[in-house]
Amino acid sequence: MNQSLFAAALLDPDAPLPRGIIDPLGRPAPKRFAVYRNTVASSLIDALKAGFPTLVKLLGEEFFSAMALVFLRAHPPKSRILMLYGGDLPSFLEEFQPVAHLGYLADIARVDQALRESYHSADSAPLPEADFQQLLGQDIAALRLTLAPSLRLVRSRWPVASIFAANHAGGPAPKPAAEDVVILRPEFDPAPHLLPTGGAEFIAGLLAGKTLGESLDLATGPIDLAAILGLLIAGRAIVGVTK
Amino acid sequence: MSIQSKSLIIAGALTAALCSVATVASAEDAMEKCFGVALAGQNDCKAGEGTTCAGTSKVDFQGNSWKFVPAGTCMTMELPADGAGMMRNGAMEELMRDLPEA
């Protein structure tokens, strides 16, 4: 028996008992293997439940667990590190027929996943306020900002920020609207923030290494730049500046 | 739009942003790292790339794990005495007490 056959049988409940799985008397031990297979699946379901708390709230534990079983058999972990397992779940949800009518689920999964990535990102020190003051006298439009490694951007045509708030912070019932979210981690707990118009284009520009001026040009329509910069500074998300 | 006028717009927005953030920051209490005060499994963490340690402390008031507390309260907050009746206090640096058995 080799490892890949064993691993394949773990994820396929219809696969025959891998050869070589025997009890102390040398007889095939299908029940022992079944216990092991069940433990693998249930531990991965637990990892997905921990990783996608908003999805669990929206779908209920029972449905989520059944869906997670289908997912994990098709998308087993690629890494031995479980903490980021489930990166394929958003795209899986877009194709998963039983929830095809709930278009927002995939983007909610992206918010959950981005929060977890943010939580596990490296620390960074924010730019001191004195450095910001110095920028004011310069040709500031030509400068580039370095953003914190824990910053994540999720753009959506669904009201993802409102759906998240309704499920975690007792926010009001969401109204149909496209919402973009930036995830910031000023200390240890990342949180999603609703971006004003043009905010996502502007931040995407900064993330792509464009100058402040170029990033400003990316925003279509009116943009409340002071609000966006205020959000980034309060979230300790601006960590460097370069020419 | 010329780069100079764009710089003026950005500088104006940045000035407004710095003012609003300064007001918020002074309204919020500062926090400090405090060792030896977190209950088991409730410590905070200096997360590094590919690692996590938040919530990994094994015993209550573990001396080498810490929690963020409002600044100025770390050394003075009241903690239960240990099993031998010794007073416990929080500290700004790692403590040798209440370490989990290896």
Characterize the structure shown.
- The complex is a heterodimer of chains A (243) and B (102).
- Chain A is mainly alpha-helical and 243 residues long.
- Chain A is 48% helix and 9% strand.
- In chain A, the strands form 2 sheets. A 3-stranded antiparallel beta sheet of chain A has the order 2-3-4, with helices on both faces.
- In chain A, helix 2 packs across helix 4, helix 5 (89-95) packs antiparallel against helix 6 and helix 9 crosses helix 10.
- Chain A is elongated.
- By secondary structure, chain B is an alpha+beta fold.
- Chain B is 25% helix and 10% strand.
- Chain B is built from 1 helix and 2 strands; from the N terminus they run αββ.
- In chain B, strands 1-2 form a two-stranded antiparallel sheet.
- The N and C termini of chain B lie far apart (65 Å).
- Classes of the chains: A mainly alpha (243), B alpha+beta (102).
- The interface between A and B is medium-sized, with 31 and 31 residues.
Beta strand count of chain A: 5
What proportion of the residues of chain B form beta strands (DSSP E)? 5-15%
User: What's the quaternary structure here?
Assistant: heterodimer
Mean pLDDT reading of chain A: 93
Strand order of the largest sheet of chain B: 1-2
Elements of chain A, N to C (H/E): HHHHHHHEEHEEHHHE
Q: Characterize the largest beta sheet of chain A: strand count, sense, and whether it forms a barrel.
A: 3 strands, antiparallel
**What is the helix tally of chain A?**
11
Report the β-strand fraction of chain A as a percent range.
Answer: 5-15%
If you compute it from the alpha carbons, what radius of gyration of chain A comes out, rounded to the nearest whole angstrom? 23 Å
Please report the total strand number of chain B as a whole number: 2
Most extensive interface, chain pair and sizes: A-B, 31 and 31 residues
Give the strand order of the largest sheet of chain A, numbering strands 1, 2, ... along the chain: 2-3-4
Give the domain tally of chain B: 1
Mean pLDDT of chain B: 78
The chain-level structural class of chain A is: mainly alpha
Helical/strand content category of chain B: alpha+beta
Rg value of chain B: 21 Å
Distance between the termini of chain B: 65 Å
Treating each run of at least 4 consecutive H or I residues as one helix, how many helices of chain B?
1
